[in-house]
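Moderator note: this is an archived Q&A kept for reference. The question asked for a predicted structure of one protein chain; the sequence and the answer are reproduced below.
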Amino acid sequence: LTRAYFALLLLDLVQEKPARDACEMYGLTNGAIEKLQKDASQFAGFVTVFCNKLNEPNLELLFAQFQDRLIFGVERVLLELINNVPTAKPAIARILFNVGWESVEQVAKATEEEIRTHLTEANYSSDATCTILAHRISTEATEAFLHIKAMEKARLIGGGGVGRGPCTPSS
């Protein structure tokens, strides 16, 4: 029963339900939930390595993405932004995704002003902070997009296989 209870809690977290709501719902402290998240993520990491040793790249990618989802407490659709744009923490990635920027490429094509406007409209932080964040996000997204394109080109030229790294698109 305890495993099922914790599985439901982790499911709530990866579906982006707020941790404070989970604390109340499951009667746990924030620290206990963070430890469970860390432990589950670590286990998913072990399974990822195991799949790699078995030469199962599809399962490896599946568990690697799930590991990231457990760490950040987000749905899969946000992983590309979170993994490639360091400033795009889960809340920021959700704001960007909700305005229609679902990929690093789309964020890279947006102007700093557009990003700032959306962060401000979402009441993410003060206007000055949103301006600074917009600059960082724009710069990081552009760099990540250029890196992804270079990796894709190198893969086409070199005939490389499936890879997983911070700049590999998750879709």
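Archived answer notes: The first helix runs from residue 2 to 14.
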